[in-house]
Amino acid sequence: MIESSRLEDSTDLQGDGAALQKQLMPFNKKVDARITVINKNGKVLADTKKDPAKLENHANRPEVRAILKSGEDLGVATHRSHTLGYGMLYVAVPILHNDQITGVVRVSVSLDSVEKAVFQLWENLAIVFGVAIIIIALISLWIARRVTKPVQEIIEVSENLAQHRYNSRIRGRASGELQDLAISVNALAESLESQMQAIKQNEQRLTAVLQNLVSGVMLINNDKMVIMTNKMMYELLDTPSIAGKYYYEVIKSFALTQLVEAAIQTKSLQREEITLYFPKEMTLDANVSPILTDQGEITGLILLLHDITQIKHLENVRTEFVTNVSHELKTPVTALKGFAETLLDGAMYDEALLKKFLGIMKDESDRLHRLILDILALSRIEQHALPINQEVVDIYQTITEAAQTVTESAKQKTLT
């Protein structure tokens, strides 16, 4: 075809075309297409399929007219060939001589073969694209798994950390920024696990200390609701259920309730000794301390109750003991003073009376000595350093001696 479109300038396109026909015939077997040479008047000079002399003028064929009449560089048309009897695709190009169109070379192929070629092309393209899509899908899946699997594992570990499962770790291997992120998440998990273990240990220690305090402790929130108590508080209030209730529901003491309200109003520590009469009578050292923020707002209260009933009892016993000791000391001292004054007033010259008085004074001195020893013994008893030895005494003799001690004083005061 190329050679046929490059005809020598000496080629006579106005002749009978026998030379052209001879020149084109070798292409009949080489090219699966029909080649036609047409002069500028539309006359067929050569054709690889038919005898040019039997072919009609082609000047009005669309592809030829596009070259000869319109001066286009390429003419393309599809129509039914009257010569061959089936649809053809025609492509025409001009033959130039001194830049003038002297004729047309037309190549035509069967539309059926074109359609087969196009179908084969599309089929090949479909296979290529199908294989390419499968390969791309597999590569994409592989890349996605390499990317999404570490991301999914990071998400799962993050969710576990949010649910307080701090022993969760990222086990898979990643690359690039995902590897750095995985290392950071694992470091965060290790830090959180270590901190939570320390917090739990401190909480256990604090709970152990709190539960073993001899004082009752109650934590009240800003809504006046009890959120925590220790074992001693249950014992003091004799209430099986405290936490989750309002403090005034479990504290059956108006004075103690007023103390809590005073702490809320003043935002300061309140302390007072309060006597409870239910469930049993007891004296408590009550302390109410507000929990304040940096802005001075109350977020809760700590109520501390210490049972000082025994201490108060011991104080009363001590006071009574001092009173009794003072009275016991006063009796022998008064007796000694009275007998001494009587002797100085002249009774010392009466030998019988002197001997009697001196005997009584000796007995009172011995009694005073025994009283001092008893006081010392009581002191040691309080310190749990002296055992108590019980013995039988002659109460009549004790009463007689006590009467003799005060007889002289009674006579001086004319008492009977």
From TrEMBL:
Keyword match Transferase: yes
Transmembrane ranges? 125-144
Gene Ontology annotations for the cellular component aspect, listed alphabetically: plasma membrane
The UniProt record lists the EC number as 2.7.13.3
Q: Name one Pfam family in it.
A: HisKA
Q: How does it sit in the membrane?
A: Multi-pass membrane protein
According to UniProt, the reaction catalysed is:
ATP + protein L-histidine = ADP + protein N-phospho-L-histidine
Which locations, inside or outside the cell, does it occupy? Cell membrane
Q: Which GO terms describe its molecular function?
A: ATP binding; phosphorelay sensor kinase activity
Q: What class of enzyme is it?
A: transferase
Record flagged with keyword Transcription regulation: no
Q: Which InterPro entries match?
A: HAMP_dom, His_kinase_dom, HisK_dim/P_dom, HisK_dim/P_sf, HssS/ArlS-like, PAS-like_dom_sf, Sensor-like_sf
Residue span(s) of domain HAMP: 145-197
Boundaries of every Histidine kinase domain copy = 324-416
For this UniProt record, give its keywords in alphabetical order, as a comma-separated list: ATP-binding, Cell membrane, Kinase, Membrane, Nucleotide-binding, Phosphoprotein, Transferase, Transmembrane, Transmembrane helix, Two-component regulatory system
Q: What is this protein called?
A: histidine kinase
Q: Upper lineage ranks?
A: Bacteria, Bacillati, Bacillota, Bacilli, Bacillales
